[in-house]
Every structure is written in structure tokens, then in C-alpha cells.
């Protein structure tokens, strides 16, 4: 199913954050205003075709009814294979004193969280992200926005089975750490040196039982306040930077 970005300002923002686009659909009734002129300039600069369509077509394709006469059809994201992520990680380890990081997301549901996690991955030098190909958030327009464009620089692999992906990483010499609150082991005391894969759980249920059983060890962030937990993207950033600190 096509991923559409609706509205003048969201389309301009999509250009700014580097969302790849197939085409712009613009109502044949639209009058030129400064924002429409900006969209036309950006489309021409990026080689994106602008197609004039009747209001009925925009209404039919709109999911929220907020198209304002303009919709952009995002191009499909180019996912990597798990083999590329592993190869990149092994190459990175050879060049960085044996350290490498891969992050696995166990059925995240929010595409914005996925983008925020990819931004942190890019910041710490992680070699890739691994996500399930079903019942999981995927890379869409909101992912580009929350990643501030970083998603274009981080290989993302879709896999049919997270447990099998973990097994492949373990065979390649990775130690796999599940970030979970259901442990007494604090991340500061965990050994995150070397080739590490960090598993992040679903926003509501955390890391699933089958995935936990396959991980080598667990770690949690200490919480001194009254809030029970952090957002998964915030927690991911803290754990990734602890990996970077230990390997500095």
C-alpha cells in the first residue's frame, strides 16, 4: 500500500528530511500561493513529477482528510539483507578494535520510535537495525522525520524471525543483550565491550519471551524517579551510549 504524505507543510517537511518520493499529486483546483510555489520548486530540484488530479482522487487516497490539495507518494524504502548488516558490522569491528553494534527491534509498533532509534544508531556508529517484516513498524514518512534523515544512513534489515536473526549474530561472535526492566542487572554493570547486539522490545509488552530465552544476558536502566519506565527510543539511546562509553 502506498504511503502518502498529506498537506502543504508536511510535504515541504518531507522534502527537508529527505523522504524519497515517487510523485506529487496536486489538486487541479489549487491556486498558487507561497507554499505551493515552494513545493513546485523543491519537486523540480529533486526530479519529482507533479501531477494535476481532481479533488475526488485526493479525497479517495487521503487517510485523514487533511490533504489541503497536495499529497506526496513516498517511494518504498530500500531495505538491506541481514547478511549486509552482519558484513558491515564485522568490517566495522576489524577497523575499530573489535567493537561493533547491531540493534534489533522486537515488534515495535510506532514508526516514529523506529526513526528516533535509527538516529541514535547513526550517532553512535551502529552497523544496522534489524526489524521483523510482519506485525512491526516499518520505515515510512514519519520515520524520516523522527530520524532527522539519519534513517538513510543506517542499513535496516527486515527478517521473518528475530530469534533466527539473533542466532546468526551469535554465530558471528556477537553477544546479545536484551534491554528489559525484568532483570536485576543494571546496564552500567553489564559487559558491553566488543561485538554486541542490543534487543529492544515492543512499546507495551517489552521483549517477548521467546526472544528473551535466546539472548545471552539482560540489562536495565536504573530509574530513580516515580515513572515506571522510559520511552523505548529514549532507553535505546541510553543503552547505546553505554556501549559506546565502554568501548571508547
TrEMBL record:
Residues 4-80 form the RNA 2-O ribose methyltransferase substrate binding domain. GO terms for cellular component: cytosol. Gene3D superfamilies: 3.30.1330.30, 3.40.1280.10. Pfam families: SpoU_methylase, SpoU_sub_bind. GO terms for biological process: methylation; RNA processing. Keywords: Methyltransferase, Transferase. Transmembrane segments: none annotated. SMART domains: SpoU_sub_bind (SM00967). GO terms for molecular function: RNA binding; RNA methyltransferase activity. CDD domains: SpoU-like_RlmB (cd18103). Belongs to the class IV-like SAM-binding methyltransferase superfamily. RNA methyltransferase TrmH family. This is 23S rRNA (Guanosine(2251)-2'-O)-methyltransferase RlmB. The gene is rlmB.
Amino acid at each position: 500500500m502506498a504511503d502518502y504524505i498529506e498537506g502543504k507543510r508536511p510535504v515541504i517537511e518531507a522534502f527537508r528530511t529527505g523522504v524519497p518520493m515517487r510523485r506529487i499529486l496536486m489538486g487541479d483546483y489549487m491556486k498558487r500561493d507561497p507554499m505551493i510555489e515552494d513545493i513546485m520548486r523543491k519537486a523540480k530540484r529533486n526530479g519529482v513529477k507533479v501531477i494535476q488530479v481532481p479533488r475526488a482522487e485526493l479525497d479517495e487516497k487521503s487517510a485523514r482528510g487533511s490533504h489541503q490539495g497536495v499529497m506526496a507518494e513516498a517511494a518504498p524504502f530500500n531495505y538491506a539483507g541481514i547478511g549486509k548488516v552482519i558484513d558491515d558490522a564485522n568490517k566495522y569491528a576489524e577497523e575499530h578494535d573489535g567493537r561493533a553494534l547491531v540493534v534489533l527491534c522486537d515488534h515495535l509498533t510506532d514508526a516514529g520510535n523506529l526513526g528516533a532509534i535509527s538516529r541514535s544508531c547513526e550517532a553512535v556508529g551502529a552497523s544496522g537495525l534489524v526489524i521483523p517484516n510482519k506485525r512491526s513498524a516499518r520505515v515510512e514518512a514519519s520515520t524520516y522525520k523522527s530520524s532527522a534523515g539519519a534513517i538513510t544512513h543506517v542499513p535496516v534489515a527486515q527478517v521473518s524471525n528475530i530469534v533466527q536473526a539473533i542466532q546468526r549474530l551469535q554465530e558471528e561472535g556477537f553477544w546479545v543483550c536484551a534491554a528489559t526492566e525484568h532483570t536485576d542487572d543494571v546496564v552500567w554493570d553489564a559487559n558491553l565491550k566488543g561485538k554486541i547486539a542490543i534487543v529492544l522490545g515492543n512499546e507495551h509488552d517489552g521483549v517477548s519471551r521467546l526472544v528473551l530465552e535466546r539472548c545471552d544476558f539482560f540489562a536495565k536502566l536504573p530509574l530513580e524517579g516515580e515513572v515506571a519506565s522510559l520511552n523505548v527510543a529514549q532507553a535505546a539511546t541510553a543503552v547505546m551510549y553505554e556501549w559506546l562509553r565502554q568501548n571508547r
